[in-house]
Amino acid sequence: MKVLLLVGTGLIGGSFALAARASGLFDRIVGIDSNPDALDTARALGIVDGGGQSFEPTAVCIATPVSRIAECVADAALRYPGTPIFDVGSVKATVVDVLRASGRVPSDFVPCHPIAGSETVGASAARADLFQGRSVIITPVDETDPGAVAKVESWWRQVGAAVTLADPHSHDRIVAATSHLPHLVAFALMELLHEFDDANLSAYIGDGFRDLSRIAASDPTIWSDILQENREAVLRLADQLAARLTIDEDKAALKHRVASARGMRVGLDEGPDYS
Amino acid sequence: MKVLLLVGTGLIGGSFALAARASGLFDRIVGIDSNPDALDTARALGIVDGGGQSFEPTAVCIATPVSRIAECVADAALRYPGTPIFDVGSVKATVVDVLRASGRVPSDFVPCHPIAGSETVGASAARADLFQGRSVIITPVDETDPGAVAKVESWWRQVGAAVTLADPHSHDRIVAATSHLPHLVAFALMELLHEFDDANLSAYIGDGFRDLSRIAASDPTIWSDILQENREAVLRLADQLAARLTIDEDKAALKHRVASARGMRVGLDEGPDYS
Fold it and tell me: ipTM of the predicted structure?
């Protein structure tokens, strides 16, 4: 019997469990969550199975907030030697750094970051198709067993994702630009808006602001963790962003800048398709 | 015969023409555009009627980039005295300031800003339902004739919009936060991303970044104009935003900040519905 041990039964972990079950990767899914309500929800939704029987996991998925990943990985490596352990966190270098500082990076640990999610929160928002056509970044380090990487990679592919390999530090620098700083900006824009004391404020909110600020509704526990763990890269980029919040006095120069940004954004939609 | 003179046959002007025709507000729509190709497109799409016959407009809609609105309003007021003239620009105070400095603000001029649009460009993206359930801000000044306001207000309502009255300076300060600074941020985030020299960059782009950066694909002519016309308010807010791009070291404080931003964003979706 193939058993997945899911540590953290929220949106991402719950979605992996649903997707893995639908793909026949595991016969049983055992859930653990520090929040008993979250675990109850995941059980009620059939995302994880009931407890009771003993088990020997085939894989361990760590889907906790990033500040808890290192300790969960170390714990799983002690309990289940030889079993592939992977996480789904948005920050990769600090986890490896903490493990290395505390003694060793388990060879069975495969750091993963699925580029998928939602501003909705918890297992009730989990979806079996969350990773379909999405990208997963895997950031193995020197200590990582290639056999474990191959297994974890194959699971992601079987739930519909495309896998890209990267080194953890490059990953963290890039996601600071594509995800972490954008979230911080969205939070800060909401704060600015809140300072306007105007009864008709909502009349000024259009689709552009709604789309841009959607990620401001993300999970506070998850996101305060991510920002702190990738603090240095995010703050360095924030300075670079602030320096670019200028409006050229020269019309042609400003129009050129906007046209260039437009070209890059249009190019995003013409990029590779992972589906 | 009721005739709408549409000056500027792009996305917003074209959409008003389509919506007004569908609502039976005008029998004929005459288009003017400094770009002959844009006018040809609008004609080919049936957004404006063929030229030739003389006409006496019932209304003039100025849907040019904001830097050209004041001169178009002054011109229309000279040619068609007693005819309501309204614009659809995103910046309101500078237009009135320019008109006042040049002699007078025509009493028939009703400054309008529909909070609707798209990152698509030109008449081919025009839609008859663009204003359905949307908000339009009207910013009359001392010189404005209340009778003209009443007519323009009624046209917006008949194409499905909800009208809110505001003073031009308040309008410009608020849209700096809800629209102009967000656009500048989206342009700047695209620029930052462009600096990453990584072949796998697209693997890191998720829905959050796509949603947030969608407005970076907006029309460069329109948006370089808007940013310059509302420069002072946007740059003041940009400084305030930059000052908020911090990451609290205290976990509880940061989590509280994110939770508060999340609460505000969730509140936006629970705001008044204009449809």
Answer: 0.92
